[in-house]
Specification:
By secondary structure, the protein is of the alpha/beta class. It is built from eleven helices and nine strands.
């Protein structure tokens, strides 16, 4: 009976585990996947502390830049309240919702890299693990997951790996590469094989607060396609050439300068 129902509805059987820290953008994707696939389970991480973020970023880029980036993150969180109208326009345009669906089971975890989280994934026995807005998997964690792991990235790889891909595409006058990527996960930062990509054209009213929302809302189809491929055992990475660079949040002084002088916020 279940197989017959799946044929009628077009829903693809097979368990999918989604790992996320939660939020509106991830739930847009979770809801889209749940509408297409029968068996979705969400593992939701606890938020990472700002202190841990700051120390890790300072080791890579130095304390002044790390503090400047944290200031931008705080300003971004505060500024979201002023971009809600544009956010609602995006949600309506793409017919998506970022409200958590109570019918989708959610399990709380501390971190995807904890032994308990890995044990839960193995116990759930998914055919694919889908990452969106969560911690980067450690090599040891990745090695213990016995199925394909794919990630949704709000940026076009390999040009805009890391963070704020849409923002940096605009800063670089490279709107042709404003988009999103679904890719296989390896030990690098958004360096795994590219499965699908999408492109968007940001509106004049879009800012750093709405770029990721636009990229996510417009890309549910490529996420569904990648998960469907994984469930059917036909994942085929694309050969995408181009420069490769990892990006971070802009420090607050750079964000303000580009916003005031160029109108790119």
């Amino acid at each position: 009976m279940a197989d017959a129902e799946n044929i009628i509805t077009g829903r693809q059987p097979g368990r999918v585990v989604v790992v996320t820290a939660g939020g509106e953008n991830p739930w847009i994707m979770i809801n889209a996947l749940a509408a297409r696939f029968d068996d979705i389970v969400v593992l939701q991480e606890q938020p990472e502390s700002k202190g841990l973020f700051l120390r890790r970023r300072a080791r890579k880029l130095g304390w002044p830049t790390a503090i400047g980036q944290l200031a931008t993150m705080i300003a971004s969180r505060f500024g979201k309240r002023f971009t809600r109208k544009r956010a609602e326009e995006i949600l309506q345009l793409y017919g998506v919702s970022g409200m958590p669906d109570p019918r989708v089971p959610v399990r709380q975890i501390v971190s995807v890299n904890d032994g308990e989280a890995v044990a839960q994934i193995r116990q759930l026995a998914p055919k694919v693990v889908f990452l969106i807005s969560c911690r980067m998997l450690k090599a040891m964690t990745l090695a213990q997951i016995p199925c394909p792991v794919v990630n949704f990235h709000a940026g076009t790889n390999p040009r805009y790996r890391g963070l704020m891909g849409g923002y940096w595409a605009r800063i670089n006058n490279d709107v042709a590469h404003f988009g999103a990527t679904v890719h296989l996960v390896d030990e690098g930062v958004d360096t795994g094989g590219i499965l699908y990509q999408s492109r968007q054209t940001p509106d004049r009213g879009d800012t750093m607060h709405t770029y990721p929302l636009l990229q996510t809302a417009a890309s549910t189809d490529i996420a569904i396609a990648a998960v469907d491929d994984a469930l059917k055992g036909r994942l085929e990475p694309l050969d995408v050439a181009g420069p490769s660079q990892q990006w971070y949040h802009p420090p607050i002084w750079m964000w303000l300068w580009n916003g005031i002088r160029r109108g790119i916020w």
